[in-house]
Amino acid sequence: MATPVDILALDRASLKAWVEESDPGFRADQLWRWLWKQGERNLDAMTNLPASLRERISTKGVINQLSLSGQQVASDGTIKFLFALTSGRHVETVLIPDFAEDGMPVRMTVCVSSQVGCAMGCSFCATGLMGFQQNLTSGEIAEQVQLADHAARTTYDSQVSNVVFMGMGEPLLNMDGVLGAIEKLTADDGFGLGAKRITVSTVGLATRIRELADLEARFGLAVSLHAPFNDKRSSIMPVNRKAKTDLDSLISAIKYYTDKTGRRITYEYCMFAGFNDSIEDARELAKLVQQAPAKVNLIMYNPVEGLGFHRSEEDTLDRFISELVKKKVTVTVRRSRGQDIDAACGQLAINQ
Would you say domain 67-341 falls under CATH 3.20.20.70? Predict the structure, then answer.
C-alpha cells in the first residue's frame, strides 16, 4: 500500500502535479488557498472542491497538522508554544510582541524552528545540547506561523508582522523545508507576508550562503558570528573549525551574497562576559563588518544552566558600542524577551 502524501509538505508545483493526476490544475490553486490563506484543515469546509477530490485527499493523502502540547506566557507578553509533530517529537515556537508606549502592539514576530534539535553544537546554546533529531517539513514550519498568528489575533488583536528563523535548528541544513515554508508564507494567495519581513539566521554555512545568493533570495539573512577571531570562534562554534566554514570562507561567501543580491546582511553577536566583549574584539569586528554591506545586532546573552557563560555588563556593552560607532558600524542591541519562560534566544530546548 502506497504511503499517503503529506499534503501540507508539498510545494505549489508538487501540489499541482499531484492534483492534476485526477483533477484540473486550478483545483490545486483552490486547495492551496484553503490551506495557506484560510488556514483551513477540515476537508468538508472546502466547499468549492469536488467531493471526489476531497475523497482522494482523505484516502491517498494526509494533512499532518501540528498539535499544541503546551503554552507559556512570559511577564513581557512573549508566548512560547510546544508543538507535537506526527513523529512524536516536539518543537518550540515563540511569539514576541512589541508594544508602543500606549500599550498597543506595533509588531508581532514569530520565531520558528526548522529542525528538532540541532547538529551545530554551539557551546552556548541549549538547543545544541539536544543534538539533531529531524528536519521539519515546509508545512510544519509554515504552520507554526499560522498557529502563532491565531494566538496573536485572539490574545493581542493583532496579526503576525515578522518571521525569524531563529528557533531550534540550523535553517540552511534544511534548505528544502525552509524555502518551501517561505513560499507558503510569502504567496499572495498564501499567508501573504512580504519577503522583507522574513529573516533566516545561520551559523554561517558558506556554501549554502552562496546557494542563496544564486537563488537571489529576497528575505533577510542573519549570520551568527559571536567572535571576530578564528581561534575564539572555533572554541565556541564547531562549524568554524573546518576550512570551508571558517571565518575566511564565511566572509568570502558573504561578499558574494551581498554583491549578487544587493542586500546587506546582519551579523548576530552574542555578548559573553570576558570572552568576546573587549575593545580589541570590537575593533576586529568592525574590520569584518566593513568588508561587505552589513549591520551588527548585539545580543545580550540569555543564561543557560550548566553552560558557564555570562552576559556582559552594561558599561562593557556601552564601550563596545562606542567603539563600533566610532568605526562607522551600524549597530543595534537585542534585549532579552521571554527569558523567564526560557523562550529567549539560545534557550529553546526540550527535555524528552
Answer: yes
**If DSSP codes are grouped into helix, strand and coil, which group holds residue 300?**
strand
CATH 2.60.40.420 fits 5-62, yes or no: no
Determine the Cα–Cα distance for residues 317 and 333; give it in Å rounded to an integer: 9
Grid cell 472546502 is found at 46
Write the CA distances from 140 to 9, 146, 181, 199, 254, integer angstroms. 7, 10, 8, 18, 29
Please answer whether residues 19 and 27 qualify as being in contact, where contact means their C-beta atoms are separated by less than 8 angstroms: yes
> Which element (helix H / strand E) includes 289?
helix 279-289
pTM above 0.70, yes or no: yes
β-strand partners of 73: 79
Q: Which amino acid is at 82?
A: L
Segment-wise mean pLDDT, segments of 10 residues, the chain, 352 residues: 91 98 97 98 97 96 96 92 96 94 90 95 86 96 98 96 96 98 98 97 96 95 97 96 92 97 96 96 97 94 78 94 96 72 47 42
- Return the active site residues: 92, 345
User: Within a 13 Å sphere around the CA of 219, how many CA atoms are in the beta-carbon half?
Assistant: 23
Say if CB 236 and CB 122 are below 8 A apart.
yes
